[in-house]
Specification:
Layout: H1 6-24, H2 46-55, H3 57-60, H4 75-89, H5 105-110, H6 117-122, H7 130-144
Helix pairs in contact: 2-7
Length: 156
């Protein structure tokens, strides 16, 4: 097998750079303007809201904190898609519209489905301790209705 020549390497690198530049011209994933907060749920406590803000608001509210990498394609496309999908499923900032998935929030949190693993890997603040995850799940269940979770030993 013959190795690429220096000229072929330059062409490959140049082609890659042109492709990356061309991706930046695609406007999807560039809004980064959050819609207004219309109405939040009646949180059971300020602690529940604070934990939800820490672990959930980036995808499930109109208060998304857009990371720097969300300005560069193709990452911007993925981030925008995830935020749009999250807001469509459950949006803490638009409580005036039906939020059918709200009753599932505590269960999904306890089962480890939320926040998704890739998000937790990129955002350390979303990695809740076991105690905080249990507190958030109970708070979400009290706020939205849904199955109440048992208190773990030593926690009140």
């Amino acid at each position: 097998m013959k190795l690429p020549t220096r000229r072929q390497w330059y062409r490959l690198v140049l082609g890659f750079l042109v492709a990356v530049f061309a991706m930046q011209l695609v406007p999807y994933g560039r809004s980064h303007v959050n819609p207004p907060v219309v109405r939040e749920p009646g949180w059971d406590s300020a602690a529940t809201r604070a934990l939800a803000k820490q672990a959930c608001f980036d995808c499930h509210s109109n208060e998304t904190q857009w990371p720097a990498y969300a300005r560069l394609a193709p990452a911007s496309w993925l981030v925008q898609h995830d935020v749009e999908e999250g807001r469509a499923m459950l949006n803490f900032s638009e409580w005036q519209r039906p939020q059918e998935k709200s009753k599932d929030a505590a269960e999904e949190l306890l089962e480890g489905e939320m926040p998704p693993i890739p998000y937790r890997m990129m955002h350390g603040h979303a990695r809740l301790s076991d105690v905080d995850r249990d507190r958030l799940a109970r708070g979400l269940a009290r706020t939205f209705g849904g199955p109440q979770q048992e208190t773990t030993a030593g926690e009140r």
